[in-house]
Fold this protein.
Amino acid sequence: MSRIFAIVENSAVVNVILADSWLGGIDVTGLALRPSIGWTYDGAVFSAPVLPPSDPQPLAQTTTPYMSHFGFLSRLTQQERTAIRAATAADPVLDDAMFLFNSAERIDVTLPQTQMLVGYLAQQGHIAAARVPALLAPIDLASPHAKP
């Protein structure tokens, strides 16, 4: 009757064979968890190899810095939007920044120009400085205003 033998060299399983007998082989037929190539053997116990840690899988992206103009402008209050529109006619810096803003296909809150515009709006008092982080935050991908 054939048996299963582990062939061990230098404390490592180098082969597992099926034979009636094998001189120097360790009979592992009755073991519930049979060793395989790469396992170690300390003279009494077989141990599975320790696998290196796998690279963590990147988390699925749930936000994007890209959004529609409406998505960005709807973050502003009505009073802030009204103040910005009124100030644009009298402020050439703001007028130029809003021209670029309105010319963009989508708003990218990570762009330096977007960040400078929002900072300028806060500096001029058109929006509260405390609101800048919320205005420059990425938008949820599930939002209809996200434009990835």
